[in-house]
Design brief:
single chain, three-stranded antiparallel beta sheet, 90 residues, 2 helices, 17% helix, alpha+beta
């Protein structure tokens, strides 16, 4: 949750679908970081998962940043900045 503290307000104003190709079942070494859903759908927890690997961290996201960033959605920029700033546990 750094450098930006992400809150529910960061997910307001997202356009179209928030994501696609969410992970279903995953290895227990992965941690699901968020669970969400579009209106009228069940929450899914495979939108953003992470796993420590060697000296780094693997992150998979099905979040539709390709829609949200060009649309200027502030919360998408804040979340994206957190992802590219992510470091492995020391």
């Amino acid at each position: 949750n750094t450098p930006n503290a992400i809150t529910t307000a960061d997910f307001e104003g997202w356009v179209q679908e928030r994501g696609l190709y969410f992970v279903g079942d995953h290895d227990p070494r992965y941690t699901a970081l968020i669970a969400w859903n579009d209106p009228g759908e069940e929450p899914l927890d495979g939108a953003l998962i992470t796993c420590e690997h060697g000296k780094g961290r693997y992150v998979y996201t099905g979040i539709s940043f390709f829609r949200e960033l060009p649309a200027g959605v502030p919360g998408a920029y804040r979340l994206f900045a957190n992802l590219i700033s992510s470091r492995a546990a020391q």
